[in-house]
Amino acid sequence: MIFRKAKRNDIVYIVEMLADDELGKTREDFQIPLPAAYLEAFENINVDPNQELIVVEDDSAGIIGTMQLSFIQYLTYQGGIRAQIEAVRIRKDKRGLGMGRKMFEWAIETARDRNAHLLQLTTDKKRPEAIQFYEDLGFKATHEGMKMHFKL
Questions:
Q1: What is the average per-residue pLDDT within 16-33?
Q2: 3-state secondary structure of 70
Q3: pTM
């Protein structure tokens, strides 16, 4: 498996994976050509040194996974850095083969290398298998997350 920073021509594969699950299909707009909003978001992410949009490649299968790491500098924890992992997806035909664990191991090591004092994530409560997976990796449900969605 090869982990690398996403390139503009990878965005179509990333959006396809984001849209290919029960929750993603209700909030993503995967079509060819991609809506401009995805490409604009990629450009913003790509120039921000605190964002890493990653793709995972397999020599024989091409892009098989994606994730985004964000590094948030803040004042608490004595000016600590918090790493946030989001939008972790594995292509449907590669799920259940241990790829997710390898992706998280890479993300954990990357967060440590960037001197983050913690790695956090949110997951939808409608994903009990994902919650169990994260707990098996060592994540703890220490806080109650809350969100406020705004209409687009």
A1: 87
A2: strand
A3: 0.90
